[in-house]
Amino acid sequence: MSFNTFGRVFRFSTWGESHGPAIGAVVDGCPPGLPISEADIQPFLDKRKPGTSKFTTQRREPDEVRILSGVFEGRTTGTPISLMIENTDQRSKDYSDVAKAYRPGHADYAYDAKYGFRDYRGGGRSSARETASRVAAGAVARLVIPDVDIFAYVSEIGGDAIDYARFDASEIDNNPFFCPDPEAAKRWEQLVDGARKDGSSLGAVVECVASGVPAGWGAPLYAKLDSELAAAMMSINAVKGVEIGDGFAAARLRGEDNADPMRPGADGPEFLANHAGGIAGGISTGQPVKLRVAFKPTSSILIPVETVTREGEASDIITRGRHDPCVGIRGVPVVEAMMALVLADQKLLHRAQCGGD
Amino acid sequence: MSFNTFGRVFRFSTWGESHGPAIGAVVDGCPPGLPISEADIQPFLDKRKPGTSKFTTQRREPDEVRILSGVFEGRTTGTPISLMIENTDQRSKDYSDVAKAYRPGHADYAYDAKYGFRDYRGGGRSSARETASRVAAGAVARLVIPDVDIFAYVSEIGGDAIDYARFDASEIDNNPFFCPDPEAAKRWEQLVDGARKDGSSLGAVVECVASGVPAGWGAPLYAKLDSELAAAMMSINAVKGVEIGDGFAAARLRGEDNADPMRPGADGPEFLANHAGGIAGGISTGQPVKLRVAFKPTSSILIPVETVTREGEASDIITRGRHDPCVGIRGVPVVEAMMALVLADQKLLHRAQCGGD
Amino acid sequence: MSFNTFGRVFRFSTWGESHGPAIGAVVDGCPPGLPISEADIQPFLDKRKPGTSKFTTQRREPDEVRILSGVFEGRTTGTPISLMIENTDQRSKDYSDVAKAYRPGHADYAYDAKYGFRDYRGGGRSSARETASRVAAGAVARLVIPDVDIFAYVSEIGGDAIDYARFDASEIDNNPFFCPDPEAAKRWEQLVDGARKDGSSLGAVVECVASGVPAGWGAPLYAKLDSELAAAMMSINAVKGVEIGDGFAAARLRGEDNADPMRPGADGPEFLANHAGGIAGGISTGQPVKLRVAFKPTSSILIPVETVTREGEASDIITRGRHDPCVGIRGVPVVEAMMALVLADQKLLHRAQCGGD
Amino acid sequence: MSFNTFGRVFRFSTWGESHGPAIGAVVDGCPPGLPISEADIQPFLDKRKPGTSKFTTQRREPDEVRILSGVFEGRTTGTPISLMIENTDQRSKDYSDVAKAYRPGHADYAYDAKYGFRDYRGGGRSSARETASRVAAGAVARLVIPDVDIFAYVSEIGGDAIDYARFDASEIDNNPFFCPDPEAAKRWEQLVDGARKDGSSLGAVVECVASGVPAGWGAPLYAKLDSELAAAMMSINAVKGVEIGDGFAAARLRGEDNADPMRPGADGPEFLANHAGGIAGGISTGQPVKLRVAFKPTSSILIPVETVTREGEASDIITRGRHDPCVGIRGVPVVEAMMALVLADQKLLHRAQCGGD
Fold first, then answer.
1. Domains in chain B: how many in total?
2. If DSSP codes are grouped into helix, strand and coil, which group holds residue A41?
3. 3-state helix vs strand vs coil in chain C, percent to 5
4. Is C352–B9 a contact, with Cβ atoms under 8 angstroms apart?
5. Percent of chain A at pLDDT above 70?
6. Whole-prediction pTM value?
7. Hey, is A302 helix, strand or coil?
């Protein structure tokens, strides 16, 4: 069964294919009375928008969002908020290659195996274009959690990591890579451009931090905050791994080194470390919620890969078109959006069970 | 809100605390007519059972499961299957330390922050004891997917990894670590025993493989197979990271190296690699589904850690009791169970939408 | 929490207000490969369309549906089907009366009490206009259950019932009341027109029959077929009662009179009566599924009713505008749509658990 | 698919068959800190308990509830509350008749058609015995809504209705029929006893009132308060109809007579009538929530009814055993429980979206 809805009480559904007339999201369960307009959503879409540098796809979509419902006199009414983004740059290209043969790494074969049928134009529903709908929904989610500050950045491309000693959050928006380390950003220009010229692609790691999350959000056991975040991140195209806090590195620590000791603080316990990434037992601890997400290299490359056709014949395929040489870069606003969507949902779930505002 | 149910159509709910009279699971949506008895479930519980070696907790629970409903004349009826495991070894120990102060790394503080209140005996609901219910439910799930073979093993403890060149699946059950590399297993004896004697603990990495999954399972976009698996694994106590296929390593590959080329095979495409872990676009490809899970070191250690009391006073805490020096070891049957539960659910979801048996 | 989604695996969500730019539905979980175009949906919308006779509201909306996603080369792809209907006849009228005072029988006061705020233009989200989205979604549902024949009709207006001895299904579309009894239809012309001229309104009873439903659909216990139908019908604006089969009349029968005896038939048991309305234990029996729905009289009337303003002042209100004198009439296609939506969902649920097809 | 869970955030699942070892419910999402013990639940079970008069089944079950989880030191912890009731009076009788032939009006044929298989002992999962689990869960729900007063009563048996002029709520518990009219109660003794002696059975109408529900509960559109109530009531065994407020009678009123006028009151608007049953637009208005439920006559009767065997042979069947001559009577505490369960859920949903305590 196709489940295109995410969330428990603050929920969003997305629809649309990369080459249909439009894509969109419906946000359900948003609290009433929140001031909102397209201007609150557009900046996040602009951040994700293709065609802003040579390091991202040259497809050009204005990605202008329209609010079709759920808002009256500039405020949310508590009813579903329908968001629509028209697809404008559907270049009438030739998709016969993709229609005939399966692109390795893409969902082509899996969709055919499942549905017996697929919209092959630009990846159809499995296109990363769908993530624009998430980003729009995420902008609404941020309004629900005004005290939470969320930011993400790329910490590694093609195996070349930032130096945390040079970490400067104010640098993130100063380069086309959402990179907090200006020297790494410089290196990545060559790295990514080189991959692009080779017709190849690179993977990346995105990190995301949410501060201002109070202790107590999370719905044990099967909607734990970390479980929901893992589901949210793993649903993003090209994501193959998720770590909360130290993640796999924690598996290499001894218990005493992995502990996050506490001491009395002004407003409750003060933590002396954050190996846990702000979550214990599936519930937020009041520390910043931190996670890392692995993006595989873009599967669309100009280097021929062995494959088979729908008819079962051997073939080589190269994926022409306007592709991101490193899809993880544009994953940054998507990761932020999913973080916001999960946290908004968990905030409302928490007050459902435990009350409070 | 507390969500103690997992799954979309094949669903299970668990209940129970480590020191209450019993724990249990209710499995809902199981197909009718499957032959089943306690004997189909007990071996999986025995595999997870504490007290089987000095490398796991010395708590002794027979963990005998009873089927209370949903089965008639040895077959599932299609109605809820209620499974109950009585708690028998609830040693009347002194929990006043835990009641008073928060154990770092545990859910103590988070539960108090959320609920204003917690059952502090042995971790209460946040105890790993709950995972016995999952293992029982997972045994039912396996009956739904008889053609799928699932096995997990420990690939790394405390940073000491197996050598894949020595990988031998038949070794997994020959040592107390579920280790497929007999030499690593030997090293781990000392490693784990040393940590235990130090009153410390170690993390671990568990890997799981499901073969026999046909192409086409997975419910894009927000119940993608990998997204569901990530949620399932991250809901297990002490898990901090999940990778599908190559996971974070994929982020360091170039596109042409990460591709899983295909060529014509006897029964549809044959894949020449499996970097993707058997999932593309959230749908199974017919290759083995592979994932890795990071377990942090057990938080209960005998080495004092700085903490605060419920009243906000500074304190040191050591967690006496019968704890696993490496909780990841007993995570193996739990990871397998969650894999089975997700796959059973996805199988039924697939046939809901796409038909077939 | 606002739940604007209905269904378990074949699910639809609706969005939109009567006076926003558009309304719509997203249908999720539709099986792939079904031939579909706007032409399959439009006739159902036309049936519900306002302004077709003097017995329905004079608001004129073309109610043209557009398919925005989920369809490729004329067939469903298995991905979400986004349906949009633009609002065109949003007469720029004066809503200051409604903004200031609560219309008794309407959701005005309840929405304000819940949300502290409401879109008062034409009822906003609580307007019966939303039901156009359901009718569109219902047209898709019908494609999922091609062997099921669904039809509804009005059996009673303002207490004046049809004579079942004159029941003629072919008459239903021959009069503006969806009335299967031509003599009743004639009487109703005067009745409804009289109410309209008085500025008053009338209630109605709608009956719906689905034949061709095989035995075995229904998901006991809390998604029983009758329970789902009751929820579906009671979610329609102005509905105050639902009966399955004989409904309240069954409460006046003795056991032996209410029994539906069976005898051997060509294809399994043949029933000699259908008091149960085709459902036993929440599961279809193979007989026609039958239900009755009570619509209250339209709350918007030109006769002044005592009320209070938002500021708590006493006031009288009359609801000017273009209203249906008997909202039950246009409820007919909505009841049919909800029947189709429930049955499509239950069909897929059934095959999820029990296989087949 | 079998859905044995009800509710959105305050949720309960039931399990168990009439002739298995036990039945039970798991209540999930209950707010923490509520004082609770078995003594809070038992009185409601006692009210429903069989064998208390000759007008109900002579099956004798003590129906003693045990709390197995979710409670610590006499208070709810916010984790799942597992409730178990052992089956003790499973008379080892001969079910070969029921195994062989389908009892008309029962779920026998439908279960076989769906699952190919059924637990025929005493109705198995479709037995009204399951409702004991609901009553237990409902007792927990009442703790969540302490300011709401819920009571139900029988208003009609076998077509013989109470006289509302003699309505006296204090009489409800003074007779075996939960009848608020002592004269009707007297008549019903003969009526019900007569049916019992004839081996026949009678239907009934149960009415339920919840006062103290504040304005604003209800989750439009597809979890409207009335829609949820309709689903809840229609899921009870033998229920064939549900009315909110005036229900079908409203369909016979003119708009001005069905209006519930308002005037200024001490605490917000005061309503001058309650045709709507306390719900408008799916949201509570602050008036008492009122509904009516139709129970068909018990299908188990001693009068032979024509039927078929599993093998398709013609047969007559009479249902021996200890049955309620009027199952609606013992439906009273079940209707109350479902009302409580829906209201508790809607309270928590409301505060999820709109905040407040």
1. 1
2. helix
3. 35, 25, 45
4. yes
5. 97
6. 0.97
7. coil
- What is the phi/psi pair of residue D38, to 5°? -55, -30
Q: Is the pLDDT of residue D56 over 80?
A: no
Residue appearing with tokens 């490809």: B285
Report how far residue A264's alpha carbon sits from residue A95's, in angstroms, rounded to the nearest whole number: 63
Q: B295 near B204, Cβ under 8 Å?
A: yes
Mean pLDDT confidence for D88-96? 72
| D14 closest CA partner among B10, B7, B81, C346 | B81
Check CB contact of D114 with chain B, cutoff 8 Å. yes
A-B CB pairs within 8 A amount to 400
- Per the CB < 8 A criterion, the answer to whether C278 and C214 are in contact is no
Task: Decide if D233 contacts C230 (C-beta within 8 A).
Answer: yes
Decide the pairing of beta strands B239-244 and A239-244. antiparallel
Q: C-alpha dihedral over D174, D178, D181, D182, to 10 degrees?
A: -40
Nearest one of D275, D347, B1 to C114, comparing CA atoms:
D347
| C351 in B contact zone (CB under 8 Å) | yes
- Answer yes or no: are the C-beta atoms of D110 and C281 closer than 8 Å: yes
The pLDDT of residue A55: 80
Chains with 3+ CB–CB pairs under 8 A to A are: B, C, D
Q: Quickly tell me which residue has 């086409």 as its tokens.
A: B216
Contact C152/C339 with Cβ under 8 angstroms? Answer: yes
Average pLDDT of the residues in D186-191: 97
Distance of CA B257 to the CA centre of its chain: 31
**A266 in reach of chain B (CB within 8 A):** no
**C3-56 pLDDT, tens digit each:** 999 999 999 999 999 999 999 999 999 999 999 999 999 999 999 887 778 787
**Where are the strands (E) in chain D, listed by range?**
5-6, 11-16, 22-28, 65-67, 71-72, 75-76, 81-86, 149-157, 160-161, 204-211, 239-244, 262-265, 268-271, 279-280, 283-284, 289-295, 305-308, 314-317
In this complex, do D113 and C303 lie within 8 Å of one another by their Cβ atoms? no
Selected residue with higher pLDDT from C62 and B187: B187
Which tokens belong to D107?
């779920």
Q: Any binding-site annotation on A60?
A: no
- The number of angstroms, rounded, from the C-alpha of C126 to the middle of its chain's C-alpha atoms is 14
Structural domain that includes position A196: 5-354
CA distance C52 to chain A (A): 27
Residue D11 has pLDDT above 90, yes or no: yes
pLDDT at D1: 42
Smallest Cα–Cα separation from A151: which of A164, A162, A138?
A: A138
Contacts of A79 in chain D (CB under 8 A): 220
Report whether pLDDT(B1) > 60: no
**A331-354 helix and A225-234 helix, angle to the nearest 10 degrees:** 150
Show the tokens assigned to B31. Answer: 């197909």
pLDDT band at C90 (very low <50, low <70, confident <90, very high): low
CA A252 to chain centre: 28
- The DSSP 8-state label assigned to residue A219 in this structure reads B
> What mean pLDDT do residues C219-242 have?
98
Of D227, D247, D307, nearest to C294 by CB-CB distance is D247
Residue B121 and residue B93: Cα distance in Å, rounded? 9
pLDDT tens digits along A203-215:
999 999 999 999 9
Integer Rg of chain A from CA: 21
- Residues in A closer than 8 angstroms to B280, CB to CB, are 105-110
CB-based contacts of A217, cutoff 8 Å, min separation 6 = A225, A283, A284, A343, A346, A347, A349, A350, B114
Quote the mean pLDDT of chain C: 94
CATH code of the domain in which D64 resides: 3.60.150.10
- DSSP letter (8 states) at residue A67: E
Q: Which of B323-327, D28-32, D280-284 shows the lowest mean pLDDT across its residues?
A: B323-327
* pLDDT per residue as tens digits for the range D232-252: 999 999 999 999 999 999 999
- Contact of B42 with B65, CB cutoff 8 Å: yes
Q: Which of C335, C340, C332 is nearest to C52 (CA)?
A: C332
* C-beta atoms of C221 and D235 within 8 A: yes
